[in-house]
Design a protein that fits this description.
This protein has 117 residues and is an all-alpha fold. The protein is built from 4 helices and no strands.
Amino acid sequence: MRGGRVYEEQEEYSYYVSSTNPDNYNEAALLDAVRGHWDAVENGSHHRRDVSMGEDASGISKRPQAHMMASLRNLTLGLFERQKDTGTASLPSWRRKMTASDAIRILASKNKIINHD
């Protein structure tokens, strides 16, 4: 669509792999499950990565550096998830207070660490 006019119609096909028994879902239920999964991804992890960490606005374009930053963001989100039910207010405020020694302590701990506020 350009300028409000459709110039060419296209069909897209998506293929999904599932471990569910085919008898458990009809086509509509399976489609709802797939859409629900991707809705959760977009509204969960991606939203936090973009809004709280500015991932989409990142100027990093070289693949190795982009992979490194994605790994660091994943680590940050994992640490936050481990702490979020200990009274941590939000990801941005938690990131501002987190230190390297706190992160190492969280990674080394088998139990959840009490918020360091």
